[in-house]
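[job 4471] stage=fold_predict status=RUNNING
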Amino acid sequence: MIRRLFLDHPESVGESYAEHLVAAGRFGLAMVAGGIACTIHAILPAAFPTAGSGTVGRLYAQMVAKRGAARAAQSQLKTVDYII
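[job 4471] inference complete, writing C-alpha cells
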C-alpha cells in the first residue's frame, strides 16, 4: 500500500520520491500563480493578458521535455547488454 501511494508513480516517470516532490510542487505553484494571474485578468483585462497561456505553454514544454528524456533513458537501458 505504501509503495503504491508513494513510489509507483514517481518511478513510472523516472523520478525518485524526492525528485517528484520537487517537480510536482514546482508545477503546482506555477499553476496557482497562473490561476491567480488569470483571476486578476478576469477582473482587470489589461492586467496579465498572457499569463494563463504563458504558464500553460511553459509547463507543457517542461513536461514534454521530461517525458522525452525519460523515454530516451529507458530505450538506452533496453539496448545495453549489461550495466556495470
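[job 4471] summary: The chain has one domain: 2-79.
[job 4471] exit 0
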